[in-house]
Amino acid sequence: MKRQGGAQNAAPAEDDGDTTDNENEGGSVTVTCGASSQVLEVAGKSIAYVRREYASVFNIGRESKAMLNGAEENDESHILEDGDNLEFVKKSGDKA
Amino acid sequence: MKELNIVVVGIGGVGSALVPKLCRYCQHIKPQVPVSLVLIDGDLYEQNNANRQSFHRFGNKAEVTVEALAPQFDRIQLSAIAEFLKPDNIDFIIAEGSIVFLCVDNNTSRKMVDDFTHKFKNIVVICGGNDMTDGNVQIYIRRKGKDITASLADIHPEIASPQGKAPYQMNCEELAMASSPQLFFANDLVSALMCLVFYQIIEVKDFLDKPRFGELYFDMLLGRVESVVRNPVVKVAQVDRKKCKGKSKPAKKGR
Question: E-strand spans in chain B?
């Protein structure tokens, strides 16, 4: 069962799901944006957390679509699980 | 494979680097099959193109390129269309079974081709583009009336909702201002990755039915090329996850 971030714990209204509950999942997620790809220990974190924390590392655009395991994922509060593949879709090259 | 019908849209930095490579490969392809290679571009070679493109005279890019290559590659039926691709002529240029190399610098043209090719039972679109030192090549494959990979617009919202005009919509002044600085090496990398895809289509069994990737990204500064799977998009209503809470989760899709 997938958890909404912050659903169980008292959390501020602005919480974007980057807190984990006491059953810390842990685990690795492959995060990709364009040609950049790394395995990060962010299972248990939300997509929004990864987008925010790694925006500069991966050069993630604000409008970049999130794809989870090959399918578009619109819910930024979705909690990542061990073994997930999270891609922030990089824009197509403008020139030719 | 009975024949190859190839269309190259755009003979700019990427297209002009791509076409000689395609010609050299197709000239010696085995077993021998008829190869038709149509180049389409309404733009002209000018002096300021010389830093990225090779040409022996000024003139329409498609015509000048065919003129240069046809004597070297006599097994290929090379032809030029000295127009920009537009809704009026796309019907005559892209046909069932074509392999379309999309080497254009605007998303309006990309969307036009993407929308048009949805109607075919069998078609391949290989779309490439770059920024200064990075870029991508995306593959859209349709086989027997079904998407094998996601279409260009399914993945890239900037193609689904393009800003700006296609060249055929621009006046001379707009066309003159449309070009921007580029790095030849980035153009050449895009063309090489497009050739990588073409090689897979021709030589790797079942690539068109079971492609191992749907998009390639490169970054010259990082020294990396990354492949990504692009499963066809199933257009159904999104499941409300809150309503599904407590129920078994769907199977996770692997890469």
Answer: 4-9, 35-40, 44-45, 59-60, 76-81, 99-102, 123-130, 134-143, 146-147, 215-219, 224-228
CATH code for position A79: 3.10.20.90
Interface of B with A in 122-161 (CB under 8 A): 127-131, 134-136, 138, 152, 155-159
C-alpha B82/C-alpha B197 separation (Å) is: 27
* A23 inside domain: no
At B149 the pLDDT is 98
Superfamily holding B4-228: NAD(P)-binding Rossmann-like Domain (3.40.50.720)
Q: A91 CB near a chain B CB, below 8 Å?
A: yes
Among A92, A78, A71, A80, smallest CA distance to B113 is for A92
ipTM: 0.85
What number of other Cβ atoms are within 10 A of residue A90's Cβ? 27
Domain membership flag for residue A5? no
* pLDDT tops 70 at residue B250: no
What DSSP line would sit under B148-163, residue for residue? Answer: SS--HHHH-HHHHS--
pTM attached to this predicted model:
0.87
- Does any CB of chain A come closer than 8 Å to the CB of residue B250? no
Q: Are A93 and B130 within 8 A, CB to CB?
A: yes
